[in-house]
Amino acid sequence: QSALTQPRSVSGSPGQSVTISCTGTSSDVGGYNYVSWYRHHPGKAPKLMIYDVSKRPSGVPDRFSGSKSGNTASLTISGLQAEDEADYYCCSYAGSYPLGVFGTGTKVTVL
Amino acid sequence: EVQLVESGGGLVQPGGSLRLSCATSGFTFSAYWMSWVRQAPGKGLEWVANIKEDGSVKFYVDSVKGRFTISRDSAENSLYLQMNSLRAEDTALYYCARVGGMSTNDYWGQGTLVTVSS
Fold first, then answer.
1. Which of A37, A49, A58, A99 to mutate to test the interface with B (most CBs of B within 10 A)?
2. Which candidate from B4, B37, B50 shows the least CB-CB separation from A98?
3. 3-class state of residue A71 by DSSP
4. Cross-chain residue pair B44–A3, CB shorter than 8 Å
């Protein structure tokens, strides 16, 4: 099972919005509404930010939103803050493959 | 508060073995699938293994099949990963995580580092 494709990096100024894409196939991202997104500060535990494409866990600010179109899912961070500077990973259910498939990861830089 | 704390990592020679542990608290351990995810140096996340609530079903990524064994102990609220025949490419930070939905890990530990080197 191949990793999902994410841009290596995106950047924005405080207060701006950034969008991270996550491209897969019809066998994973496009076939199911089970895409999740994680924020990962190096050396710390990854944190679930979005699940089931667009749902936010309790405690995650509404600055974070998720969507999907065809084989590409997206995470948008609005009102960018310094604490948002981290690595972000998408992950998708892939049907017959029994484990989750992660994306290649995107480094978000707050300028 | 949900907590997951990994332990057992360290330096091991190629071909050696290591057993990782994950102590959990703050939730009903026996009601959730659990997983191990790893991150090699400079690389992304890779889902390594899953285990069902009662331990009856287990899945592995192809690269560790036959070498790694995931297990759990509900009496101890603990998850384990027995790693045998370790290779340099197994060097990574290993995370324990609770599976909260379809291919979704909702809580993670901080990880334990495994280094395979002579």
1. A99
2. B50
3. coil
4. yes
pLDDT band of residue A76 (cuts 50, 70, 90) is: very high
| Nearest C-alpha neighbor of A108 from the set A80, A86, A81, A76 | A86
Within 13 Å, how many C-alpha atoms sit on residue B46's CB side?
A: 21
The residue ranking higher by pLDDT, B8 or A99, is: B8
| Structure tokens belonging to residue A19 | 């969008």
Task: Name the band, by pLDDT with cuts 50, 70 and 90, for residue A43.
Answer: confident
Q: What separation in angstroms does the CA of A104 have from each of A6, A69, B94, B110?
A: 6, 19, 17, 20
d(CA A78, CA B91): 36
Confidence at B45, pLDDT banded by 50, 70, 90? very high
Closest residue in B to A101 (Cα–Cα): B47
